[in-house]
Structures are given as structure tokens and as C-alpha cells.
Design brief:
The structure is a homodimer of 172-residue chains.
Chain A (H helix, E strand, L loop, with lengths): L14 H8 L9 H7 L6 H11 L7 H11 L5 H13 L4 E3 L7 E3 L6 E5 L5 E4 L3 H6 L9 E12 L1 H12 L1
Parallel strand pairs in A: 3-5
Antiparallel strand pairs in A: 1-2, 3-4
The complex binds manganese (II) ion (2 copies) and zinc ion (2 copies).
One manganese (II) ion (MN) binds next to loops of chain A.
The structure holds a DNA duplex (30 and 30 nucleotides).
DNA sequence: CACCTAATTTACAACGATTGTTACTTACTA
DNA sequence: TAGTAAGTAACAATCGTTGTAAATTAGGTG
């Protein structure tokens, strides 16, 4: 939805345009694409596109969603490449892959500590702040001896639009 | 002849043991089996067995684990029946089905509020207490309008035995 | 630039987890 | 006893994801 990015508009044979747009461009410093290249992996057009789509997404796209956006602009993109790239990015800690129980995993591009709201009807995910003081409190009883690497806070329920849909059914 | 106990149809081979255990016994009040019956669903031998296996489990069995235990005693049990029964129990709020990202879901038989430790290597889940005061703090920004039904706290990392295994590898 | 080679992508099969379908059993009822 | 509703088992199908192997390409070399 952001118009500030490179113009990758679809249309018949978009591949040439795409390559033109990509060739000779340094990926922005700090971007996913830059991280990929710095890691030694090749920055292919497929990977570059996937990185851009993640950065322009609502923040928690699924592999399938990225795939559909990608094929609109690069019809040859394979779903396997999407998965591979996401796994590569996750291995670099450039993204995280979170499973909130809505089927497949979702890309988490917000690496700051935060929590999630998950709608049980439509699967939408939204970020919420989590007071760092709380994170501190989420400790493990010492007798359990568990090496914590990551903390997750997830609130499940109904988003506004799903709640109103359900309200209609019951109330009217 | 009106027996006090449920009239449990005879099954195939391998069921004698089970029927002996079940015959003439009311399911304990408050048990999963009792909840099933109270709900109007029939308390079949399959369902009763699954309920018992859940109650005797470590607290977070997978459907597959329950299926394997079940077939040991009732070889005709189908995996589909396990899934169906788990979904029935979940619909009655007798259990919850939680997805901690370790493949399939797991049965959660502890309905008290608590958090989870999940080992990323072996998938083991352990319960941990979560300070109720923290639960309170996990609120939704008012502008988001989200109807929270459930709160989840999950800590990921390495359990003691997996951490020591990994330590070996690095040290040697 | 033309070429080389390892990395990558693709098409496609396979997989694990779960659900749909449907015929067969069983439980309860009239 | 047959009738009806519920439940089970066998099996196929689905979804999300990964494995495989052949074809393609990126990025360096002369
Ligand atoms: Mn997020
Ligand atoms: Mn638990
Ligand atoms: Zn919703
Ligand atoms: Zn472990």
C-alpha cells in the first residue's frame, strides 16, 4: 500500500520492468534485502521481491499471501522459493516465523518485543505493546532449569469487525 | 436390569480388559467422561478410554500420542475418533487444544490460567505459573477494540536435557 | 564479453496433521 | 422387531510445508 517504494506495477510481461527496476540498485541499508546480501546469499530478483513485499505488508503476512502478491508481478515465482527465502531470512534473524494457530505460520517483521492480538474468526493479527516490566516478571521457577530464549504474549478473541458480525447474528 | 452404569456396547477383541475396568462404574464426578455424558453425548468405550488417557497423561499429549496409547488397549480405535473426541471435549470446554508451534496441537487439560515453557528441540511443554497481576496488565490499547477471550504466555527455549546435549556438542 | 561453477529456482512428489465422506455398527425407541 | 439417530472405521482429501532433482542463473574469472 505504501507508494514510496519502487514501482513494481504488474501488467502483462512484468519481468523485464522488474529486472530493470532491480538491476544496479543497492538495496537500502538495513533492509531485508541488504541483510540477505551481507550474509553471503545471492540477492536474486525473487528474494529481492519477497523482501520488498514483506516490508510493504501489514506486518504479518502468510507465505501464501506473499506468494500471491509475488506472482502478480513475477508469475514464475514458486511457492517453494517463498518458503525457502522466509526460512533463510529467519535463519539470519531478519524476520521471525510465528505460529499463532491460524493454519500456517506468519512472517513477523517487527523484531521489537511486543504481543499479539489474534482474531479467532478471521485470523487477523495485530501488534500490542507489552510492558517490559511484565516481560521481566515472566520468569521460570528456578527448579525447572529452562533456558528461555523468547517470550510470547498472545491474546485471543474477536476483532472489531468479527465481533460486530457475530453481534448481528445474536442480537438482531 | 436397569443397571446404574452406562450400557457399553461390546466391542471387538482386546476390549475385555477395558470393559472390565468400565463396567458398572460411574465416571467420577467432574471427570472428562462425566462431562461428556452430561452434555448429552454418548459415553462410548472409545470416548471413555480417551478421557482416561488424557487424565493419566503428562498434561499435554498430542492426538497421535493418545492414539498410540489407545490402540494398545483397543486396537480398533481410529485416529479420526481421537480427533473427533478431542474436538468434542474442546467444544464443551472440558479441555483446550493449544498450538505451540511444535507440529500438531496438544491437549491442554489444565484449565487454570498458566503459562507454558516450550522446548524448541524436543517440543516438551511444561506449565508455569503466571502471576495473575500480570494477566491483568496484558490489556489491549483502547483504540483497538478487541474482545479478548483468552490470554497466552509462552516462553520458548531449551529444556534442561536439550540444553545439556547442546552444551556437549559445542564444548567437545 | 564469454565462460564457469556453485547457488538458486522450478516443477513436482512427498510428508505430517487434520478433516470430509460414507458405509457399517451400535444404541435406544416404538 | 424394525426404525432412527448417533458414532465409528476406513479411506480419500486437504492444507501447509519440505524433499528431490533437473534446469537456470548470479557473480566471479580470463
Ligand atoms: Mn507482530
Ligand atoms: Mn498447560
Ligand atoms: Zn476478525
Ligand atoms: Zn528439550
Amino acid at each position: 500500500m505504501a507508494k514510496t517504494g519502487p514501482r513494481l506495477h504488474a501488467g502483462g510481461a512484468g519481468q523485464r520492468e522488474l529486472n530493470a527496476a532491480l538491476s544496479g540498485r543497492e538495496p537500502d541499508h538495513g533492509s531485508l534485502a541488504a541483510l540477505l546480501r551481507q550474509s553471503g546469499l545471492k540477492l536474486t530478483p525473487q528474494r529481492h521481491l519477497i523482501c520488498q513485499l514483506i516490508e510493504n505488508s501489514d506486518g504479518h503476512p502468510t507465505a501464501e499471501e506473499l506468494y500471491e502478491s509475488a506472482t502478480a508481478v513475477m508469475p514464475s515465482m514458486s511457492l517453494k522459493t517463498v518458503y525457502t527465502t522466509l526460512n533463510d531470512l529467519a535463519a539470519l534473524n531478519a524476520i521471525r516465523l510465528v505460529n499463532v494457530g491460524t493454519g500456517g505460520f506468519r512472517v513477523e517483521s517487527n523484531l521489537e518485543p511486543h504481543g499479539h492480538l489474534v482474531c479467532r474468526m478471521c485470523g487477523t493479527i495485530m501488534d500490542i505493546p507489552v510492558n517490559p516490566a511484565i516481560e521481566e516478571e515472566l520468569a521460570v521457577p528456578p527448579e525447572i532449569e529452562f533456558e528461555v530464549e523468547q517470550r510470547e504474549v498472545t491474546l485471543r478473541g474477536l476483532c472489531r469487525s468479527c465481533a460486530s458480525k457475530q453481534g448481528e447474528g445474536a442480537g438482531a
